[in-house]
Structures are given as structure tokens and as C-alpha cells.
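User: Show me an example of a complex going from sequences to C-alpha cells.

Assistant: Sure. Here are the input components:
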Amino acid sequence: MTLLQDSPATRKPPGLLAATLVVLRKDLLIEWRTRARLNALVFFAISTLLLFSFALGANTTALRQHAAGYFWLAIIFASILSLSESFRIEGENHALEGLKLAAIDARAVFIGKALGNTVLLWGLGIVLAPLSIAVFDLKVKMSLWALFGIIGIGSMAISAAGTFYSAIASNARARDVLLPILLFPVLVPVIISSVGATALIFEGDPMGQMRSWTGMLGVLNVIYWALGLVLFPRITEDI
Amino acid sequence: MAEAAFQIADVSKRYGPRWALARLTFSLERGKSLLLTGHNGSGKSTLLKLLGTATAPTFGKLTLFGLDAVSDREAIRRRVALLSHASYLYEDLTAEQNLVVLGRLLGVADPPAAARAVIERVGMTKRADHAVRTFSAGMRKRIAIARLLLKKPDLALLDEPFGELDPEGIAVMEGFIRELRAGGTTVVLATHLIEQGQSLTDTRLHLAEGRTLEAA
Amino acid sequence: MPNWLANALLILPAGLLIAICFKRDLIEIGWKVMAVQAAIMLPVAAYLGLVWAPPEREMGDVYRIIYAHVPQVWMALLGVTLNFGCSLAYLMKKSWTADALAEASAEVGLYFGIVGVTLGAIWGKPTWGVYWTWDPRLTSAAVMLIYYTGYLAMRRFTENPDTRATWSAALGTFGIVIPVTVYFSVVWMKSLHQVQSTPKTVDPQMVFALRWAACAFLCLLITFTYQRYKVARAALAREVAPPEALSGPPPSSNDVAKVAV
């Protein structure tokens, strides 16, 4: 056929990084084209945040004291929605299999999708942070940039583990229950450390604990991303 | 004897509790074309998925172009294209965006231009900027063919290519298959339209319950 | 009671495990030995814990539940760790033995975990006045049980044995994060609140009774796991049996040959 000028023999397939960028671009493009869903995600997180006040009673002191915890719980609940969505689109028309058969490195799919989810959660956190500060009447004792940084590395850890578990859960029956049951337990250390670090932003850090929390988040990121990179190709290939 | 496009040696494939293919042995020369027939559930789609490396054999050895289907699957995937029941399209992307993603992964020189060229070839230029979600089954089939054309495979695996197409679409599809064959591509065609299929292929393999009944 | 005797109790299970590594046939005798050892040691453990060991200085007799609670939580962690080992082994080399043993160890570990955590909650009531103290170790152990419930649920939801084995091996491998969390949760949470600490008066008799109980539950764990493994293996043998038309195992079917029970 003479339809396309190039021949498969002369094509230069993308490396790991380039393929990752293709996946990331594709995911962000889909998110942008369906931004109504993104809005719904933000409002879901906001409503979670507001509902805590009803669950606890309008006790301003108690709410302020635990605001960092509510903030992260809102993000983690919302992450369940965005993570399962991220693999629902891959399941439609077996699109993930299509990627696979285009000879893509499965690790590129993992990194690309996990980064896409990170961007989403990070964005959500940045929208949610000022709102939390306002409604819970918080004072930012450390810099706002530090807060955004912590939201960023926290989101990275959630996304790495979440992308792995969502890939499994989306293929199983009863996927909606399976994802939180599997994901929440492994996120416990992430919750402890991100809440710990975020609380210091609002309460100040006289004892210099920030480093150990951020260090722990860093280590967790290394572990989750490494496990995801090694295990993800196995769960998508060996079917 | 010419080089084999693929060799199936005693291959079995299990899906859950049932065997979709049981101890199948077959091979096809390069440049030849094969018609796969059999009832629903006879293992045609499974065989095509195995040849496309979408899934791996449970037992037995499968080689394509002399490469092992499990250990060398990445090299095989660059040379094989599967037109499956699933269109592999992202519903929320446009036809063109879907093809650009594929073009980038394949390393095509100018992905947007190549995508437009294949869309034009399947007669979908007018709808290139519409989301796949708005397409009918026949239109999805056309874009799926465009994916195959973009890949320019050495081995084309076509699973029910005439399904969901109108008479005009079927004629166009026949033209594509003849064109592929003329270009030297090995074609495996699974279809219920036996007469149509036979006019397009050299050999026939009939499957029943995952086993060969006749190969002529 | 001297400490060496407590350590000597472990010789039988440990020796048997090593012997089985060299001679597989011993396993059928071995599990029976373990069952007998468990049957003898458990009533004695009850006597040692309930009668023989001295009452605790502050809590009196209430503390005696630890002779059942602590060993069972240990066994749960051991089961989960075994599950991790089998999962990793499966990912390295596809083997139905590893898959069946992973299923068995997760289920038996889950059983010991449920009993252990429940006993911990019961202990909390007379000691601290509440069933649930939100002690980080207790809570994270409970979260661990949820994860392995999800693991077993995923296995039930997946019909294809190959897919099920790979996915659960991936889950079991990633799951090692959780026992590590249980272990470190106390350290991590300390910087936030003061951990409720158990007053420890380490009487040698108490140590001995606890070791005895731990060894008894270990024998029970081995017996349960092996029996559950045989069930899993039989179920797998049915699932992965070759089609009737396959006369004799196909060339590369090393896993079918091994599954034959």
C-alpha cells in the first residue's frame, strides 16, 4: 500500500519517557474534554469536607483542630472516584489492550496514568486547600507553597498505589467495592504522614518534625512507585 | 517452502473453566491468506487474539515470523494488527486524536498528517473531529480499519470484519482486504460469510469447540 | 521453668520444616505430628496461662487473655508474611503450589487475625474501660484484616485461574506494606499522641507461658495452613485439568503434571 509514505521498518518507536508522555497527554486530553466530570469531582470533595461539620456538630474548635485530617480524607475519598474513572475509560472498547498491542512498554502506561492521576489530585488539593483554610478558620503558620508541595507528594503516593489497585479492581467483578477495600489499607501510612505534615503547616513546627514527615512521604513514594513499576506490567500482560 | 508467517504447535488456551482452543497445530506461509470458520464459541476469536499476542497460550508454542509469541511479543506487536470485536477506541477522544495517539506510539513520522490520511482513506474525513462516543457501530469499524492501515502490518488479523457494515461498507472492506493481500500482507480472516471469505483467501481452517475439523 | 525448654519446643516444628524441604514425602507425616503437638500443647497452654503463671501486679487475672491474644496476632502476621513469600515466588516462577499456598496462608492468617483482634478488644474493656482504644497497632491490625478480606474476595471474583493467580500474587506482594505498617504504626503515631502503654512486669513464668502458647499456636497454624492448602490444590486441580481430548500432558505442561493429586 502506498497510502503512508513511511514504512514500518523505518519507524522509530518512542522510548520509555516518550511513550509515558503520550499516555499522560492522552489522559489529560480526555480529562479536559470531559471536564464536567472534573467539576463533579471537586464538588464531591467539597461536600465531603462540609459534611464533617454535620457529623461532628458545629464545634469550631474541634473542626479546626482536626482540619488536616478532614482535608486528606476528602482527597482520598475523591481519589477513589478519579482512579476508577481512569481505568473505566481504558476498559471501554478494551482501549488498554489497544495500547498494549501498539507495542507500548507497560511501565509507560503505569507512569503515564499515575502521573495523570497525580495532576488531578494535586489540582483538587490546591482548589480544596484555600477553601479548607476559610471554612475551618485555619492560620497558615508555614508557607502556602510548602502546603502545596505536601499535597503534591501526598497525591503522588496515593496515585501510584491507586493506579496499581485500580488496574486490578477495574477488571474484576464488584469493582466499586474492591478498590477502596484494597487501597485504603495500604494508604494508612500516607494518611498518617500527610496529615502529620499538613497539621504542622497550620499549627507551626516548633519541634522540627516536618523533616521526618516529608522524609516518610518520600520513602513511601519510592516504595509505591517501585512496586507499581514492577507489578503493573505483570497484571496487564499475564491474562 | 517459503518462510512461515506463523506456526501453531500444539497450542491450547484456557479461559476460566473452559478450553477455548485444544491442542491446535497449524502453520501458514507468508503472503498466503487464511479463512477461519466455525460456529460462535468455536475458538476463532481466541485464535486471533493469540496470534495478535493479546493473550498468551496456556500450553504449546506459538511463533510468528520465527519469533516466540511470549518472549518476543513486543517485536511481534509492531508487525501484527488485530481488527477485533473491540474497536480499541477512546470514546471521549475524536477519531483523529485516537489515531494520533496510535501514530505516536508506533513512531510514525508525522502523526497528525498520517492520521488524516488514513481517515480520508476510510471515508471519515467529515467526522474526524467528532468524539467516538457519537459514532455508530459501522463508523467505529471504519476507524478501527484506519488504525490497521496506520499500522501497516505484515500480518493482518480480521475478526468478523463484515459485521456491522452495510452492503457498501462490505464492498469497501473487500477492497481493503484485496489491497492488503496485493501489498504482500498475510491475512487471517474469521467470518461467517463463507462464500465471501473463500473468494478472498487461499486456505480454510474450520474450528469446532477449539479443535480443527478440516484444513484444506 | 528454664528458658531453654521454651526454645526447645520449637525444635520439632522447625526440624520438620527443614526435613520436608529435603524429603517431600515427609509432609504427610509431618502435618499429623504438628496436629498432635498442637493438641497436646494447647490444653497445657491454657493451664499455664490461666493457673500456673502468676497474676499481674496491677491488672490481676484480667491480663491472662494475652496468652491467647498475643500469639494469635503473631500467627496472623506470620500467615500474611507467608502469603507475601508465596506471592513473590509465584511472580518469579509460575507455580500452582505457590498460588494454593498463598490462598491458604491468607485465609488462615485472616482467621487468626480476626480472633486475635477480637480478643484484643475484649481485653481492652476491663483494662482501659473501652473495647476499642484506638491504639494504632490494634487499629492497623484491623485494617490489615480488611485488606486480606479484599484479597480473598478478589480471588472469588476472578474465574480464570491464571489471571487470578497473577493478580493475587501482585496483591500479596504489594500487601507487604501492611504488616510493616502494623509494626511501625506505634512509632509513627507517637509523635502525635501518647501511646497507651501496657505496664510490663516481666516475670520469667509469664515469658515461659507466652512462649509455650506461641509454639502451640504455631503448630496449629501449620496444621490449618496445610489442610487449607490441600483444599485449594484440589480445587485448582479441577480447574486447570487439561481438556478431555488432551491425551497425556502436552509438551510444555509442567504445571498440569504437578497438579495431579
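The lines above are the inputs; the final block is the predicted structure for all three components together. The interface with chain C takes residues 161, 164-165, 168-169, 171-174, 177-178, 181-182, 184-186, 188-189, 192-193, 196, 209, 212, 216, 223-224, 227, 231, 234-235, 238-239 of chain A (CB under 8 Å).
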